[in-house]
UniProtKB/TrEMBL annotation:
Residues 39-166 form the DDE domain. PANTHER family: BLL1675 PROTEIN. This is DDE domain-containing protein. It comes from Labrys miyagiensis. InterPro entries: DDE_dom, IS_Transposase, RNaseH-like_sf, Transpos_IS6. Keywords: DNA recombination, DNA-binding, Transposition.
């Protein structure tokens, strides 16, 4: 977009812009989104940061909307508790169904928070969250891995909000419908960036 307008900027300039404006834009985009579905899919994946094994915990609703991401060094009950507390605070409501893999930390964290949500877990039940990792892996390859846990957390928070706005994975009926979805996403982007 910048090259079309005759502007020549370096990667460092764009990184500074993202650092300065990214969180503001992401917050505005999240505010404009409709309420998430009441079925949450939780999963974690391994990410290598400077040779150290870290875990990226993700929450996705049943529509494929990324609810939140959290980079942590552990894969235990305390890490699951931290993710669930952050989700409950950010979303403002508790889910009716939690879908996870067979990691027992989710059930222990749910019991401690006294969640009344039905907990489903088992083979292939959590494919929604498993497939949502592909977007992160693609970005991780392009960036030649994450440099630190803090920068990964900051980047992924912004990336999730923008991905939710522009992700048109619902199979449109026609090209006209696709154009309508793209126009709505562009309008959300205009409102979010104008407010900042």
């Amino acid at each position: 977009m910048l090259a079309e307008r005759g502007l020549d900027v370096s990667y460092e300039t764009i990184r500074r812009w993202v650092r300065k404006f990214g969180l503001i834009y992401a917050r505005n985009l999240r505010r404009l989104r409709p309420r998430a579905a009441e079925t949450w899919h939780l999963d974690e994946m391994v990410v290598s940061i400077q040779g150290q094994r870290m875990f990226l915990w993700r929450a996705v609703d049943s529509e494929g909307e990324i609810l939140d991401m959290l980079v942590q060094s552990r894969r235990d009950k305390a890490a699951a508790l931290r993710l669930l507390r952050k989700l409950l605070k950010k979303q403002g409501f508790a889910p009716t169904v939690l879908v996870t893999d067979k990691l027992r930390s989710y059930a222990a964290a749910g019991r401690e928070l006294r969640l009344s949500a039905h907990h489903e877990h088992g083979l292939r039940q959590n494919n929604r969250a498993e497939n949502s990792h592909q977007v992160v892996r693609r970005r991780e390859r392009r960036m030649r891995r994450f440099k630190s846990a803090g920068s990964a957390q900051c980047f992924l928070a912004v990336h999730a909000a923008i991905h939710n706005a522009f992700n048109l994975q619902r199979h449109p009926i026609s090209r006209a419908t696709l154009r309508l979805f793209r126009a709505a996403a562009a309008q959300q982007w205009q409102i979010a960036t104008a407010a900042a």
